[in-house]
Amino acid sequence: MTDKQTVTIARGDGIGPEIMQATLAILDAAQVPLDYEEIEVGEKVYLSGDTSGIAPEAWDVLRRNKVLLKGPITTPQGGGYKSLNVTIRKTLGLYANVRPCVSYHPFIQTKHPVMDLVIVRENEEDLYAGIEHRQTNQVTQCLKLISRPGSEKIVRYAFQYAREHNRRKVSCFVKDNIMKITDGLFHQVFKEIDLEFPEFQGESWIVDIGAARLADTPEQFDVIVMPNLYGDIMSDIAAQITGSVGLGGSANIGDSCSMFEAIHGSAPGIAGQDIANPSGNLLGAVMMLVHLGLAEHATTIHNAWLKTIEDGVHTVDIYREGNSKQKVGTQGFAAAVIERLGQMPSVLKPVDYNVKVPQPAKREFGYTTRPRAHKDLVGVDVFLDNDGIDPNVLGEKLSAIETDALHLVLITNRGVKVWPKGFPETFCTDHWRCRFRASTPNNTITHDDVIDLLKRISDAGLDFIKTEHLCNFDGKPGYSMGQGE
Ligand code: NAD
User: Fold this and answer.
1) Residue nearest to atom 16 of ligand 1 (CA)
2) Among protein residues, the one whose CA lies closest to atom 25 of ligand 1
3) Is the entire prediction scored with pTM above 0.70?
4) First to last CA, the chain
5) More exposed terminus of the chain, fewer Cβ within 10 Å: N or C?
6) Among the listed residues 55, 122, 126, the one whose alpha carbon sits nearest the alpha carbon of residue 84
7) What is the pLDDT of residues 36-76, one digit of tens each?
8) In testing the pocket of ligand 1, which one of 13, 94, 266 has its CB within 8 Å of the most ligand atoms?
């Protein structure tokens, strides 16, 4: 019998096997009490014909062991292959992606000597729902889904993380000046949850200027929480400006399972050459050890890594003449860390994961359940595929077939009003959003009213491609207004 915990290992593609070998050598040398169970995922599985990149049996292993240390995966281009990373994160409910980005001045060259921030990226929603359609000859769309429970979970996680790690502030990046409903919800949730954590004054940034500031003065940030896509982009930028994208580790945390990895990808251009920096994967493994309660081992390994960096033993991505002392390969770097197990950095700040931050009686994760809002159907947007039609002609045609329950109020093309009273200068594609509003005495309609309208549109020879219902929730519109509506 062994009381060791078992974690799942996936070596991954490209540089994955090399950086995983280096990482496991360090964990073994530090006598980390873990057993490993390996699964095969990624390129080989994809190319064997499984478009998910993971065999069904591997899910059993993942669910049994609950913790995965994963090398980067190559997603083959085209061919309908789905990103395995996104699939694992979403299938196992790993909603929080935690990406610390720290600079190691003066040992690793960076324009930003003072940088120690953590990006908490929402991991399951947003444009990563992967729901895309080509709707017309000219127009494609990708659905951006932001939910209240998803936003509450990630924002609460970010504040709780800040509390447990003694961080000083929490910032939120959104684009709610444009996406008022989706990013607006994320921002609203951020403001609400900020009130549950009175020791922090949350600050909000529009993502474009926030990104510019992050790239220019990262020292002004601490913990930053954001929706999935912004988090993906910002964390690569943040990792890169610490000195190399090869330095960042990352944790994907869910309620029952978790996955640890490097921030970077499989770097196929440098695979098999023993030159990749294993630090991102190793620091991902350190986060895993902390998560598993192996704080002492995590502390020993992280400090040995800091000492290695401080001693100027560098892989080629961070090696600079005059700054670095010894250029090493992937396995040479691992050997240097192993040599330094038990040593502390003298200039860089040592870590101590044994220090317990006082925990609140109740961990504030999760989301609140609320009563369902009262929903009224008050109209419908019907999207049409029509190439080259004059918007005034389309307006006349649709007005002629509107029903007693629904009347046409607006036509837009890519969101711009083209009827009534559009401008001839507005460029139009073959994709028209036609807004019908209830004209009933109580201003609400039924599904049958929508079906009746669609039947008339179809009978008029018009090609409808989708509908979106216009609903009021507790009396408030749950849809954006058209320009000039
Ligand atoms: P990448 O991160 O693999 O590489 C970007 C650049 O950084 C390259 O110049 C690369 O050589 C360098 N680099 C990355 N890691 C390094 C390391 N450890 N040491 C030294 N240099 C390093 O990004 P990419 O080229 O856009 O993607 C390659 C593949 O990785 C794609 O198939 C992509 O889908 C996949 N990917 C996987 C993950 C993941 O598994 N979590 C994340 C991102 C990308």
Assistant:
1) 246
2) 267
3) yes
4) 71
5) N
6) 55
7) 999 999 988 998 888 889 988 999 999 999 999 999 999 88
8) 266
